[in-house]
Every structure is written in C-alpha cells, then in structure tokens.
Design a protein that fits this description.
It is built from nine helices and no strands. It is mainly α. The chain has two domains: 1-92, no CATH class; 102-230, no CATH class. It is globular. Residues 102-203 form the Prepilin type IV endopeptidase peptidase domain. It is a multi-pass membrane protein. One of its GO terms (molecular function) is aspartic-type endopeptidase activity. Residues 10-90 form the Prepilin peptidase A24 N-terminal domain. Belongs to the peptidase A24 family.
C-alpha cells in the first residue's frame, strides 16, 4: 500500500503544479504549450529537474538556480497541501471510489486556481470536466434524481436567478449545479453554507472588496465535506 499512496502523492503534486502553471498562464493569456517555463526575473528557461514538484523548489533552496532570485512559495505550498489531502482522502475512502474522487478533486483544484487569479474560469474545462464527472458518477446521479429531483430543480432555479442578477458568477452556478446532481441537495447545501461563511470572513478581512472570486471557497468547502462526510 505504500507504493499506492506514494503514487497518489506524486499524482497530487504533479497535478497541482500543472494547475498552478495553467492558472498563471491563463491569467497572463499565455499558451499552456509554449513558451517553455522560465524564471520571471532572469527569463532563463528552466531545466526539467527544476520543474519537479516540491523537490525542484527544495533542491534550489527556494531561489532561482541562475540569478538566485527568490521563488514564490505559493506553488509549493499548494503542491504539498493538495498531494497530502489526496493521499489522506484516498486512504479514507474505499479503493474502488478513488478514481472518481481523484478526477473530481483535480477538476476542482484547476477551477479554484483559475478563478482565484482571474475571477473567471475556462468554460471548456468547466463544462467538459463537469460532464466527465457526471458520467463517472452516473449511478449516483440516477439515485440523486430519484430522491431529490424537486429540491434540485428548485435550488438550481435559485442559483440561476442569482447568476442572472449578477449576485453569483455563472461559473459558480454551473459548478454548484453539477455538484448538486452528483451528490444531492443536502451535501450541496452544506457546501454552499460553508463557502458563504468562508467568503464572509475573507470579505471582512480584505476590507470589503467590491467583488471576490467565490469558486475557491466552494472548492475548499467541497474538499472539507468530502473529508468529513463520506
């Protein structure tokens, strides 16, 4: 089992490294394919060993190998937290459920980071990822629809109305609707309540910003719900 958990940890760190890179490039309108990753200070292209998640940062002691400029630690913190979270949660859930769980968490992290940095999410990742998760959870969705169809339609209508009134982003709305159809009305409601509490705390701490990215709070709340409520 050690090898299994090690692979999960490597997957988590690799995906979170990619998600950070994608969010940065999406924010600056740079292709995810080209150009090659480089130091923001000296603009020298990074070698493969420098791009290894977590280890690359540690080997370079948090500074660029070429110009010795300090490397922002946000990416490595995200890599450590996400890979650790995936390892713990995969140890908690039955092994047959881990693939779907990994897909959901990886999709969510990508949306969290892009929304946090840009207050927008790529429509193609939001929709395609949502449908993929729904396909993987097809049996669960059938059960959810049979038990919670009226509640889900009512709550989805409220979310759409809030989005129409510009009180909630369209990406937030679509993401929550996907979650509702996958996990049901009650888990989605718990996620919404927790995310609203987080958002309020952030709103007060950051001195009443006019608008905030809400999807990161939804995603973090989902991670907590998945961890504590099986």
């Amino acid at each position: 089992m050690f090898v299994y958990y090690l692979l999960i940890f490597i997957l988590g760190s690799t995906w979170s490294s990619f998600a950070c890179c994608f969010a940065y490039r999406y924010q600056h309108n740079i292709s995810i394919i080209q150009p090659h990753s480089r130091c923001d200070n000296c603009l020298k292209s990074l070698k493969l060993w420098q791009l290894i998640p977590i280890l690359g940062y540690c080997i370079q002691k948090g500074h660029c190998f070429y110009c010795h400029a300090k490397i922002p630690c946000l990416s490595v913190i995200i890599e450590l937290c996400f890979s650790g979270y995936l390892t713990i949660i995969c140890a908690t859930y039955p092994i047959e459920k881990t693939f779907v769980l990994l897909a959901l968490c990886c999709w969510t992290l990508l949306l969290i980071l892009t929304d946090f940095f840009t207050k927008t999410v790529p429509t193609y990742f939001l929709i395609s990822g949502g449908f993929l998760i729904c396909i993987l959870n097809f049996q669960r969705i059938l059960i959810t629809l049979r038990l919670n169809l009226l509640f889900m339609l009512f709550f989805s209508s409220i979310l759409v109305l809030l989005s129409f009134l510009r009180m909630l982003g369209s990406g937030d709305t679509i993401f929550l609707i996907f979650l509702g159809f996958i996990y049901g009305f009650i888990p989605m409601l718990i996620v919404v309540i927790i995310s609203c509490l987080f958002a309020l705390c952030y709103f007060f701490v950051c001195k009443f910003q006019k608008s905030i990215a809400f999807l990161p709070f939804i995603g973090i709340s989902l991670f907590l719900v998945l961890f504590f409520i099986h």
